[in-house]
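$ run holo --ligand "zinc ion" --emit tokens
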Amino acid sequence: MEIIKLNLNERTYPIYIGANLNKIGETLSCFNLGKKILIISNAYILSLYGKTIERSLKDAGFSVFLTCVPEGEEGKSLPQAAKLYECCLKYKLDRSSTILSLGGGVIGDLSGFVAATYLRGINFINAPTTLLSQVDASIGGKVAVNLPAGKNLVGTFYQPKFVYIDPSVLKTLSFKEIKNGMAEIVKYGMIKDAEFFSYLEENLEKIKNLNEEALNLVITRSVEIKVKVVEEDEREERGKREILNFGHTFGHALEKATNYKGYTHGEAVAIGMVIASKIACKVGIFSQESLLRLKRLLQKIGLPVEIGEIDREKAFDALYLDKKRREGKLRFLLPERIGKVILTEKVPSSLIEEIF
Ligand SMILES: NC(=O)c1ccc[n+]([C@@H]2O[C@H](COP(=O)([O-])OP(=O)(O)OC[C@H]3O[C@@H](n4cnc5c(N)ncnc54)[C@H](O)[C@@H]3O)[C@@H](O)[C@H]2O)c1
Ligand SMILES: [Zn+2]
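-- output --
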């Protein structure tokens, strides 16, 4: 098992990678937390892993309560959070109690939000079960719910006591969800680590087949990269955390323009990374050869590299309304080479529209 520390002064915490869900009780015993644990998950994930985790926690002497939220992004809402507060009250959770998220990013964001706000904050633990949440959503303390007007509009930064990553749970995950996580993993290679990008190119089949060693390496490296960025800029105030949005400005625009039905998040990010790279080629800072490598890797994963049928007006509107707009200027993350991106405001909108 790998242990990576996320250093944030008194909120420093460990991320266990290659952990085994049936040992989570033992791990939790090492922390000085209260005895009551509320597991938040959904019915399907609980049917797969609920018994294992409940047994482990009970064997370690904890009182365990379980609650389910509905499947899907709709569950990440204020009404759903209100139901969870009721549940916390019903089980008499107090400031020493712990909320444990068992699920993907939806359940993690929602559970973290409830943990951050119930009684002004109780203990939070994250056991992410999708590849995307293991390499991205569970790391860094962003918790949120959606409003009808948009995604993640209400939230805060709230770090967990620890993150517990058991990659073996990915065996039951659909390939569509694996690809979502893979898009973010490619992003890490693009923004920070050329060697890691080459590793992905050379070991893709192993990763796709969920080979234990390859998977552990890929998750560990991704977490290391995200941890470094978060340590430098926890609250996205110093212009460092923005780097994690590589491919996302265009990606979000595509998702919005298709009402979140046209593309999965991973597909949109894949296309977004290609668009940013094409722009970088046009302005002469990125090579055609690197662009080809990126496209080839994404295609081998099974991710798209081009926009299909889309309402271009809507896409531009979404792009220009994107929250990354500063003082009327759009800022873009463009690659300089594989492993390095730069933030620039100097892209003429005519070029953006031509490529997009
Ligand atoms: N907080 C952050 O920093 C951050 C970063 C990225 C994304 N997010 C958020 O994460 C959410 C997306 O998360 P996601 O991609 O994990 O999707 P998700 O949570 O919706 O999970 C996807 C699907 O996989 C199922 N599932 C989960 N684990 C499984 C397993 N082990 N076996 C079988 N099925 C399993 C779930 O039931 C669900 O149907 C979005 O709401 C997004 O806003 C947050
Ligand atoms: Zn993303």
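-- notes --
The domain at 175-355 is CATH 1.20.1090.10 (Dehydroquinate synthase-like, alpha domain).
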